[in-house]
Design brief:
Largest sheet: 10 strands, antiparallel
Radius of gyration: 37 Å
Structural class: mainly beta
Mean pLDDT: 82
Distance between the termini: 138 Å
Number of domains: 2
Strand content: 35-45%
Helix content: 10-25%
CATH topology of the largest domain: Lipocalin
């Protein structure tokens, strides 16, 4: 009885082996979709503009801010491209004396608020807006209440600072005071309304062309006389530095030339021709 069982089992195995091969089941493909990460990568880059890099903030701001024990504080704050400032305050109804301070200021991480450094006796924080400064409280918050509008300093309208008609006497080169000489051999320059500039470089006379647009200022190569000079170091540095200038500031403190937003390259004071 054992043999028939074995034969039957063998027959079954043969039938299975000879049967049709199993068919492969196809899985429907899904259309590709863009991942959230990919969508984020193609999004437009965030706008990084702020007051520091987008506004024409350099200039003089004035206003009368509230005072606890006087009629008001007449305030004048000048901000320069090299991040220096000049501050003048007068306590109206008490003393006509103007208290003047100067120093450096710094921007906050967002480029919207400035802090007047070494400012101990008055407000030091200002939010910079379009043609105005908002005085902030000691916590850096905008002052609110009925008098909030009075805590603003308005930028003075100087659409085209006047360079012409003045002899500008050189006072500093790269932060170094220009030494006085006898006779006076201090360099100076004068701007003409025709786009020409001329002056004295310390030994030789020079002349050339300049271009302005707002506070932008550039000089063309200068032509000079060829007088022999015993000490031409100041002259050479002065003329070379002029060619690197690309903007300027002009206020009660005088005229200053800059390259981008670095410290002042040259500083001048007004002198009579």
């Amino acid at each position: 009885m054992i043999k028939p069982v074995i034969l039957s089992l063998s027959a079954c195995l043969v039938l299975v082996a000879c049967g049709p091969a199993p068919t492969e089941t196809s899985v429907p493909t899904q259309p590709l979709t863009q991942s959230p990460t990919a969508q984020t990568d193609t999004a437009a880059a965030p706008d990084k503009s702020n007051s520091a890099n987008s506004l024409d903030w350099a200039g003089e701001y004035k206003g009368v801010v509230p005072c606890a024990d006087c009629e008001g504080i007449e305030t004048s704050l000048t901000l320069n491209m090299d991040q220096s400032y000049q501050l003048s305050t007068i306590y109206l109804g008490k003393d006509a004396t103007a208290f003047k301070q100067q120093g450096q200021f710094e921007w906050d991480a967002n480029g919207s608020v400035i802090r007047l450094l070494n400012q101990k006796d008055g407000p030091a924080l200002y939010k910079v807006g379009e043609n105005q400064l908002f005085q902030l409280d000691i916590q850096g918050q905008v002052i609110s209440g009925d008098l909030a509008e009075n805590y603003k300093l308005k930028k003075q309208n100087k659409t085209e600072p006047t360079l012409t008609g003045v002899r500008w006497k050189l006072m500093e080169i790269m932060g170094q005071r220009v030494a006085a000489t006898e006779p006076d051999m201090t360099p100076y320059l004068q701007f003409g309304e025709d786009g020409r500039v001329s002056g004295f470089a310390g030994c030789n006379q020079f002349t050339g062309a300049y271009e302005t647009e707002g506070l932008r200022l550039t000089f063309k190569p200068m032509a000079t006389t060829e007088k022999a000079c015993l000490n031409a170091s100041v002259e050479q540095q002065f003329l070379t530095t002029l060619q690197g200038v690309d903007n300027y500031s002009l206020n009660d403190s005088g005229l200053a030339f800059y390259k981008a937003r670095t410290a002042a390259l040259l500083r001048f004071s007004e002198a009579q021709p």
